[in-house]
Amino acid sequence: MMKSKLKLVIRILLFLGTVISLYFVPWPIVFAWIKPLPNNIQEQVNKAADYGFDGIVVCVNKTGNKCEFYTSGYKNRENKIPADPNSFFKIASVGKLYDAVAVAKLVRDGKLSLDKTLSDYLPELKGRIEYADKITLRMLVMHRSGIPNFTDTYMYWAAPKETEDEQLALILDKPANFKPGEDYEYSNTNYLLLGRIMTRVLGYDKFQYIQNEILNPLNLKHTFGSIHDVNIDDVMSGYYVGYDVDLKTDNIGSILATAEDLSIFIRALNDGSVFRDKKEQEIYTSIYKYEHTGLIPGYQTIAKYHKDIDAVVIQFTNTVNFEGYNWNMSEIMYNKIVKIVRKKN
């Protein structure tokens, strides 16, 4: 009799556990994932509002830099301005690809050394950043420095810093997260410091070098280093869930680019044409990757080359939260678009 009661209690507990767990399942993500694949890319892109995005821009760059554009939703939701494939978008961490290419070029020219340390290039930081005399340039590029990430500091995105000095000040005199080279941890501080090193070695702003050595040779005329370098009306608005203010005027140091410009850069990176020779490409391959994503308040970017179909697919979505929901939805959207391209190829 006792065994029967115990079994009943266990069954009831298991049932309750199942019901409770079902309550916490992110059903919109599940439903978006299991829905059948539409017949074409535009049909998929038209679902952006269902996915929680105010606007979306997709560029499919096929062999020979032949670009196809797909949009839905709004460039600016307040004024009901439709999403525009030629809008500038804050590509956030995707900009690290440009920085890493610039580093490879400077190393190839002997102007930088991957084995020199942070304190070699920025001696004023010795004693302010732990292990500054042990952290090499290579470790900075590869996110193996152990330097804390300034954007991970408490409530950073509630009031983002606009200057590099303010950003850097957030992590000075803080202990390292690990000893240099012993682990991996993504840190925006690494690339802030790389930018400073490049600017100091060059004697002028590192984005000017990117302009001269990367953008101009590829004829990329719609890629800029700052929100101050573009007409603000040409920038796609950015939104954070539950916050009504348009975030496009925030100056957070992001590169801005059109989807087409970014797609051409990603193709050139992957086919090697962004490099002057094999040696330069080998240097790059040894330190960084060939695709990237970006996430800041108001802006999500996915930028990848798919070798099996010889296509670059760029996706911009302009509604964000940092709880993971919107990012998961953007990945589902992106993966479905790639599947459609692959199916039609």
Give an account of the 3D structure:
The protein has 345 residues and is an alpha+beta fold. It has helices at 2-23, 27-34, 41-45, 96-108, 118-121, 137-141, 164-169, 188-202, 206-215, 259-271, 278-287, 325-344; strands at 55-62, 66-76, 81-82, 89-90, 223-224, 239-240, 256-257, 292-296, 299-306, 311-317, 319-320. The strands form 3 sheets. It has a 6-stranded antiparallel β-sheet, sandwiched between helices. Strand 8 and strand 9 form a beta hairpin. It is globular and about 60 Å long. It starts with a helix and ends with a helix. The mean pLDDT is 93.
Q: What is the strand and helix layout of this fold?
A:
Elements: H1 2-23, H2 27-34, H3 41-45, E1 55-62, E2 66-76, E3 81-82, E4 89-90, H4 96-108, H5 118-121, H6 137-141, H7 164-169, H8 188-202, H9 206-215, E5 223-224, E6 239-240, E7 256-257, H10 259-271, H11 278-287, E8 292-296, E9 299-306, E10 311-317, E11 319-320, H12 325-344
Parallel strand pairs: 6-11
Antiparallel strand pairs: 1-2, 1-10, 2-3, 4-7, 5-7, 8-9, 9-10
Helix pairs in contact: 4-8, 4-9, 4-11
Number of helices: 12
Mean pLDDT: 93
Class by alpha and beta content:
alpha+beta
Strand content: 5-15%
Total strands: the figure is 11
How does the major sheet shape up? 6 strands, antiparallel
The CA-CA distance between the termini, in Å, is 65 Å
N-to-C order of helices and strands: HHHEEEEHHHHHHEEEHHEEEEH
